[in-house]
């Protein structure tokens, strides 16, 4: 139980439970300046119900507030400001952190499942920086869900079907070099894919050949299927290398092709329910306050919506999730609104548990990255660049560091992940290697370095867990203690708002607070206070490492 929850319960009892502790907790504020208290409760919303002034309510309630962690209660302008007993409060927080370690802030298993659909690159196309956002946001949300007591099922809905495969088959038959593709599959496939589009701008016959090739694929033509399976397996092999570097894993790689034979039952169900209507030869589902959802084209071909309906129904049957999250760019917002609305019309109540988690685009020179035109920045190249920059940094500052290669990998890759996750997910991000490889300021390496510095302190101070009895607290450490105590609330907020940025920004605040404390305090003094300060440092390290883990970032012990 957090201190906010405890305080909310005390106020709820003081109000004779006219308001629940949960309602009170939602109203609590953290004062901007420490001289105004550690927590504040504004009484303005109570005035109407109690028919009294906020100032009078605050005065009456304040007289009933008591607790071993409360040092002082002040009433000011309709606010109840509470000051904590700092040492008592800090002792309790340290005891919990040292006992629970990386489980601090975790909720017990609740027996429920969250299914997350994320990453979803297209087969036979390179894993570009454009795919980074869905991948790292989805992975972080899966980690956060598990911390909140859920089982997380990570699904990679691969783009492994569609008319682009007709284009690729034609391109391969015309210009493909089997040996070159086997040696470097995605780079070579990208070359012929871009060439197809360049040539097709002046030769419409190529597009007709591509439509015919995709029809062959749909009909199960052995030659076309062999090429498709080859493109898929070669791409997956290359994608797995990227996922390994990022530390991301999946429970399922069922992509679009997996649902090819599951779509007709959906169309039949829509027909039986009288939901399909004809519109210019196509079949649609009419929806309120949004355009109709297109289910089949004039020629009877199914579309993305049909496939996503089949996927949602399949996932519900297999996993019975409490939440089904789609981590997909914000340009798909209308598609998901239509998808959930159609599921609802079909009578599937689980549609209420489906949620689109949109995010902004990764831009290059102010424009969206495009594979078709070849304007693509490969994620693997960016990771190599940032690892190289991290290694150069290590060589300059700590050339005798053991495991330099491993640390450079963890720091370089962490820089890329944190650079994405520190931003509000709805914001577009301009691609810049320079910003990613800056290891100072609001960066992942800054947090990693803070943690490594603490590890060095603990080693030099010969800290052991038997030293974990806090009976003294520096005034400068108080802000750190409050930040540590708020970790559970931070995780809860990140989960409810589907926002890893909340944890990223929190970890920056904690690292900054510790570095300020470190700069103004003598740690290795060989006196009785040394161990007390090291307890605080140890607790900060636990929280920083866990924050980074939730974001999908490693925490090297030395840098």
Walk me through what this model shows.
The chain has 22 helices and 13 strands. It is an alpha/beta fold. Helix 5 crosses helix 19, helix 7 crosses helix 10 and helix 15 crosses helix 16.
Strand order of the largest sheet: 5-4-9-10
- Globular, elongated, flat, extended or rod-shaped: what is the shape? globular
Estimated structural class:
alpha/beta
Residue runs with pLDDT of under 50 for 5 or more positions:
none
Oligomeric grouping of the chains: single chain
Largest sheet: 4 strands, parallel
Percent strand = 5-15%
- Portion of residues within helices: 40-55%
pLDDT averaged over residues: 92
| Cα Rg | 28 Å
Secondary-structure topology with pairs:
Layout: H1 3-14, H2 21-27, E1 39-42, H3 47-50, H4 54-62, E2 70-76, E3 79-84, H5 86-100, E4 113-117, H6 132-147, E5 151-155, H7 163-175, H8 178-183, H9 185-200, H10 204-218, H11 222-246, H12 263-272, E6 276-279, E7 282-285, E8 293-296, H13 304-319, E9 323-327, H14 333-345, E10 354-357, E11 362-364, E12 367-368, H15 379-397, H16 404-421, E13 429-430, H17 433-436, H18 444-460, H19 478-485, H20 487-496, H21 500-520, H22 528-551
Parallel strand pairs: 4-5, 4-9, 9-10, 11-13
Antiparallel strand pairs: 1-3, 2-3, 6-7, 7-8, 11-12
